[in-house]
């Protein structure tokens, strides 16, 4: 028979912010942990882990309670009988808040406080107040793909995204403004441009320029995911800064 795995958990009491440590095993039932807390003079009503109440009849191991690969001790939050409901609610809201890094492709970054259950749509609405853009003019990119409004960021382990300003919501190619063609300088390597793909603009940096039979194309590297595209026609681009920094 395999030996039960022993580890330490932090017990944090909601409302009072008191804390203690218990040595437990992964085969311990949640109800057994509550019983041990009662022996220590506490009256636990619920034990919570990652914002969810743990059922008494399940073992800690089956619920994923245990130290991380880096050795970080898990925390169980204890709601005691008689605890102030408002204090418990505030403590739960504090735990559910996360920080999302939003890298603005126009420059700079924003650290936005969001909740675990927030969708991309809610994040855009919060961002619109900070960057002074309508929410439907904001696109959020992750690993080179645009995130749809119904995605819950933290359900998908997304903690950092890129912000791209859209021309307008649902803009078609026919409605897009005329692009800026190649500047008069002979070499545009190092400049920033927007590359149009399916009606959206994606920011990139020019790596090199090619001129053949009076036709000019560029090799570019996208800022959001680092991918490189070769031989892009300038008619699909608009320039942002010239000369390059």
UniProtKB/TrEMBL annotation:
Residues 100-160 form the Ubiquitin-like domain. InterPro entries: Ubiquitin-like_dom (IPR000626), Ubiquitin-like_domsf (IPR029071). Coiled coil: none annotated. Pfam families: ubiquitin. SUPFAM superfamilies: Ubiquitin-like (SSF54236). It comes from the Eukaryota. This is Ubiquitin-like domain-containing protein. It comes from Durusdinium trenchii.
